[in-house]
C-alpha cells in the first residue's frame, strides 16, 4: 500500500514493519547494520528526551529545577552518544556512563538520563560475556541495596526511601531482570539449534553409513557371484590350453584361449582389488593395488591382439603427467571402446589415439563398422558401454561422442586436464 506521500510501504505477512522505500524495495529493520540502528535509536532518544525537558516533565525530585537547559541537554546528550556503543562495547559504555549519571544526580536526577542509563545496564548484561554479565548483575544488585540503605541512613525519610526503591526497581532491577531473561531465552534457543544440527548430522552420518554398508554388501555379493564364473573360466581355459598343446592345435586357437585365460584372471584380480578397497580403511587401503591407468595400455592392447584383433596405437603423451582421475577414465574408455569393437565388429582393425591437446586429453577409438548389426546382448544391448563412457567423461566435465563416421565407428572423449588437476 502507499502512505500519504505516495511512497510504497511494505509490511510482512504478520503485519510487522518491513521497510519504507520509494522504489518498492524491501529492507527489514533487522537487516539494517547494528551501528546504524543504535545511531538511529540514540537520535530518537535525544529528540524524545529533549521533549521531556522542554515540557518540564523530567525531574525525579524538586532539586535542580534552576539548572540551565543547555547543561541538562549536554549531560543527556552524552548519555545518548554512549548508547551508540551499547552492542560493540557495552561494559565500557556503562562504566563511562557513570560520569554523566553522577553529574545528573548532583544537579538533580532526571528521568531521561536514568532511562537511558538503564538501557546501558541492560546492554551490558545482554551483550557481554557470560562471566561479565554475572559480575555486572552482582555489582548492581549490591549497589542497589547500598542506595536504599544510604538513603535511609542519611535522610531517615520514608518518602525518600520509597523514591529510592522506585528508582532502583524501575531503572536498575528491571533492566537487569529483563536482560537476563532475554539472554537466557537466547541461550536456550541457541542450544536447541545446536541440538537440532547435531541430530541432523547424526542422521546424515547414519544414512551414509547405511548406504556404505549396503554398497559393500552388494559389491561383496556381486563378487561372490561373478568371481565363481571367472574362476571357472580361468580353470577351464587352463585345462583347454593343456589339451590343445597335447593335440598340437592351431597356434591361433591356442593364442585366443590363452588370451581368454589371461583376461579372466586379470578381471578376477581387479574385482578382488575393488572389494579390498571397499573393505579397507586408512593405511590398509593404500596397500591395495591402484586402479588401471594408461601405463597399462600396452597390456590391454596385447590381450586384444592375442584374441586376433589388429590394433594400432598412437600415443602422444610425451611424458605428460596426467591427473589420476583423467588417467583412469581414459584407460577405462579405451578398454570399453576396444571391448565393444571386439564384440560388435569382430575381425575389424581398431585404431587408438591418445594425447593431450589444448588443455585436454583427447581419446579416439576408431574401427570399420560391421556389415551386419550385432545381435542384442543379454544385458540390454550395445548401449550400456556407451553410457558408461559418457558418464565417466561427464564426471570430469568433458565432452563425449560416439557414432558412425565415413563407414567407421568412432568413439571420441575430451577430458579436461585443468579441472582435474587436484586429483
Automatic annotation (TrEMBL):
It catalyses: ATP + protein L-histidine = ADP + protein N-phospho-L-histidine. Residues 328-418 form the Histidine kinase/HSP90-like ATPase domain. It is an enzyme of class 2 (transferase). GO terms for cellular component: membrane. The chain crosses the membrane at residues 39-61, 92-115, 135-153, 160-178. Signal peptide: none annotated. It holds the Pfam family HisKA_3. It comes from Nocardia tenerifensis. SUPFAM superfamilies: ATPase domain of HSP90 chaperone/DNA topoisomerase II/histidine kinase (SSF55874). The keyword Hydrolase does not apply. This is histidine kinase. GO terms for molecular function: ATP binding; phosphorelay sensor kinase activity; protein dimerization activity. The keyword Nucleotide-binding applies. InterPro entries: HATPase_C_sf, HATPase_dom, Sensor_HK_TwoCompSys, Sig_transdc_His_kin_sub3_dim/P. Its EC number is 2.7.13.3. It comes from the Bacteria. Keywords: ATP-binding, Kinase, Membrane, Nucleotide-binding, Phosphoprotein, Transferase, Transmembrane, Transmembrane helix, Two-component regulatory system. Residues 214-281 form the Signal transduction histidine kinase subgroup 3 dimerisation and phosphoacceptor domain.
Amino acid at each position: 500500500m502507499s502512505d500519504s506521500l505516495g511512497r510504497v510501504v511494505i509490511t510482512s505477512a504478520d503485519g510487522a514493519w518491513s521497510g519504507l522505500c520509494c522504489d518498492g524495495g524491501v529492507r527489514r529493520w533487522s537487516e539494517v547494520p547494528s551501528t546504524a540502528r543504535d545511531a538511529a535509536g540514540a537520535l530518537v532518544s535525544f529528540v524524545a528526551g529533549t521533549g521531556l525537558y522542554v515540557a518540564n516533565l523530567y525531574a525525579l525530585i524538586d532539586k535542580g529545577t534552576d539548572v540551565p537547559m543547555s547543561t541538562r541537554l549536554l549531560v543527556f546528550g552524552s548519555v545518548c552518544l554512549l548508547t551508540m556503543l551499547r552492542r560493540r562495547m557495552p561494559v565500557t559504555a556503562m562504566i563511562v556512563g557513570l560520569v554523566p549519571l553522577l553529574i545528573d544526580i548532583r544537579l538533580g536526577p532526571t528521568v531521561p538520563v536514568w532511562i537511558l542509563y538503564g538501557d546501558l545496564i541492560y546492554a551490558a548484561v545482554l551483550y557481554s560475556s557470560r562471566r561479565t554479565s554475572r559480575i555486572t548483575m552482582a555489582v548492581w544488585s549490591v549497589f542497589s541495596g547500598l542506595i536504599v540503605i544510604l538513603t535511609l541512613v542519611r535522610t531517615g525519610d520514608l518518602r525518600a526511601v520509597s523514591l529510592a526503591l522506585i528508582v532502583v526497581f524501575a531503572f536498575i532491577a528491571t533492566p537487569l531482570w529483563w536482560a537476563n531473561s532475554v539472554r537466557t531465552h537466547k541461550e536456550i534457543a541457541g542450544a536447541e539449534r545446536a541440538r537440532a544440527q547435531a541430530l541432523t548430522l547424526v542422521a546424515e552420518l547414519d544414512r551414509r553409513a547405511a548406504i556404505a554398508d549396503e554398497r559393500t554388501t552388494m559389491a561383496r555379493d556381486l563378487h561372490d557371484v561373478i568371481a565363481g564364473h571367472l574362476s571357472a573360466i580361468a580353470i577351464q581355459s587352463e585345462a583347454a590350453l593343456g589339451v590343445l598343446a597335447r593335440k598340437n592345435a592351431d597356434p591361433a586357437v591356442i593364442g585366443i584361449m590363452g588370451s581368454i585365460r589371461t583376461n579372466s584372471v586379470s578381471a578376477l584380480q581387479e574385482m578382488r582389488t575393488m572389494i579390498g578397497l571397499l573393505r579397507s580403511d586408512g593405511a590398509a587401503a593404500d596397500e591395495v593395488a591402484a586402479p588401471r591407468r594408461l601405463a597399462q595400455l600396452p597390456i590391454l592392447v596385447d590381450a586384444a591382439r592375442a584374441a586376433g584383433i589388429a590394433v594400432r596405437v598412437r600415443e602422444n603423451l610425451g611424458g605428460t603427467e596426467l591427473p589420476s582421475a583423467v588417467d583412469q577414465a581414459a584407460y577405462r574408455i579405451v578398454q570399453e571402446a576396444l571391448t565393444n569393437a571386439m564384440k560388435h565388429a569382430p575381425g575389424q582393425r581398431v585404431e587408438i589415439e591418445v594425447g593431450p591437446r589444448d588443455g585436454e586429453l583427447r581419446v579416439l577409438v576408431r574401427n570399420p563398422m560391421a556389415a551386419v548389426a550385432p545381435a542384442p546382448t543379454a544385458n540390454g544391448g550395445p548401449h550400456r558401454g556407451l553410457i558408461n563412457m559418457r558418464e565417466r567423461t561427464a564426471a570430469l566435465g568433458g565432452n563425449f561422442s560416439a557414432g558412425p563416421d565415413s563407414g567407421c565407428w568412432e568413439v571420441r572423449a575430451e577430458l579436461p586436464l585443468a579441472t582435474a588437476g587436484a586429483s
